[in-house]
Amino acid sequence: MNSENDNLKNRFKSRIGPYIMGFLISLFLITGLCLIFYNFFLKAPYPREPVENVEIESLIHISSQEEIQETREKLIEYIWGTKGIPERMPDQVEIDINDEQYNGMSDLARIDRLTINMENGINSIAYMFHPLNPGNQLIIYHQGHNGGFDLGKSYIQRFLNHGLTVIAFSMPLHGMNSQPTILIPELGPISLVEHDRLKFLDYPFHYFLEPISTTLNYIELNFSFEYIAMTGISGGGWTTTLYAAVDPMVSHTYPVAGSLPLYLRGSGSEWGDFEQTDPELYTIANYLDLYLLGAANGEQVQILNKNDPCCFGGTRHIVYEKIIHEKAQTLDGEFSIFHDDSHRKHEISNEALTLIIEKLESIQSD
Question: Is the separation of the CB atoms in 362 and 327 below 8 Å?
Fold first, then answer.
């Protein structure tokens, strides 16, 4: 009898054992997949809630038109090493070029290509998209770190559909822009393939802004636009914020997922490359100051994606939104934040594009 019981137990174990093992393996795999999905799609790489107990007023250093001018001059000198924004022109302007990747775009009359050469073999190639039915408004579109401005083709198309002339830029070292290798004394050859390596160069910030200022010198000489607006995504949003702070010629700006004050940031991708955190630059003007400079005598709408999987999401902006809005009004400007909860991507949503276009159309009707 014992022998028969033992045989039954052994047969039971041999049959049920694989099922138990299979169940445990399946449970392990499902748990792992759930954790991966949560970390990559639901959990943000940053704190979502606002930081309390920070005296925001003490972090703001601008309260008058005189302080605006003084701060801009200090920023320009730090960025370029000059007393004013350089007045140079693009090195080459090619009218009515053909680029096959933009064939088939509607409401497009022609594309001009502008090339801006800078020191150390670094260049910037910008495209000027002319609409078939132009108004008298120009918007600058600036791409971020993930590639060239061709990634913003759908945004450019929307602007063209509304009669806006568009100038598109990529960040330095991205898109069609060069990635030279330079020889640095005592260090040897350095390949400029990422922004952190630009900090080895003199005046590294001018590589981000000079393509824009140079192009606007050309625009001012050859066109008569009613106003110049600017938008950009991610690093392009950061560029929009910084450029608007130094050049009031760009009067209406809409940076998307581009920045938060440093004390509100998380780690990793949200902390950013060196240009986002340079101590000397942000001692001259921190991000709250930059927002005020960009809004003064114009308008800045900061667009933040609530559920952004990359950076600057959550609700942390609420701690400074009202204060910057009120201070901007004392400087003849407008500042607001559009908290975009319509999607879960690091991009400019349809809702944000609609907001930008409606804002620009309201300027035309005023």
Answer: no
Residue 111 near residue 96, CB atoms below 8 Å = yes
Q: Which of 272, 238, 229, 276 is nearest to 256 (CA)?
A: 238
Say how many C-beta atoms besides its own lie within 10 A of residue 26's C-beta. Answer: 10
* Pairwise CA distance, residues 244 & 236, whole Å: 12
Interatomic CA distance for residues 209 and 185, integer angstroms: 26
| Overall average pLDDT of the 182-211 stretch | 96
Can you tell me the mean pLDDT for 242-268?
Answer: 96
Q: For 278-317, where are the alpha helices, taking DSSP H only? A: 279-284, 287-295
Is 3.30.70.20 the CATH number for 44-365? Answer: no
- Residues 6 or more apart whose CB falls under 8 angstroms from that of 53 comprise none
List 293's β-bridge partners, or say none.
none
Comparing CA positions, the residue from 246, 340, 270 lying closest to residue 302 is 340
* Cα–Cα distance, 257 to 14 (Å, whole number): 58
Which tens digit of pLDDT belongs to each residue from 223-246? Answer: 999 999 999 999 999 999 999 999
Query: From its phi and psi, is residue 104 left (phi > 0), alpha (psi between -120 and 50) or beta?
Result: left
Question: What residues have CB less than 8 Å from 328, skipping those under 6 apart?
Answer: 291, 292, 295, 296, 300, 334, 335
Give the integer Cα–Cα distance in Å for 189 and 168: 31
Total residues found in the chain within this entry: 366
pLDDT of residue 16: 63
Separation of alpha carbons 89 and 61, rounded Å:
33
Q: pTM (2 decimals)?
A: 0.88
The tens digit of pLDDT for each residue in 22-53 reads 666 666 666 556 444 444 444 555 565 556 67
Contact present, 150 and 175 (Cβ < 8 Å): yes
Pairwise CA distance, residues 44 & 47, whole Å: 7
Domain residue ranges in the chain: 44-365
pLDDT at position 13 over 60: no
Encoding tokens for residue 97?
Answer: 């070029």
CA triple 77-78-82, angle to 5 deg: 30
- Assess contact for 278 and 206: CB atoms under 8 A: no
Closest CA to 271 of 283, 259, 284: 259
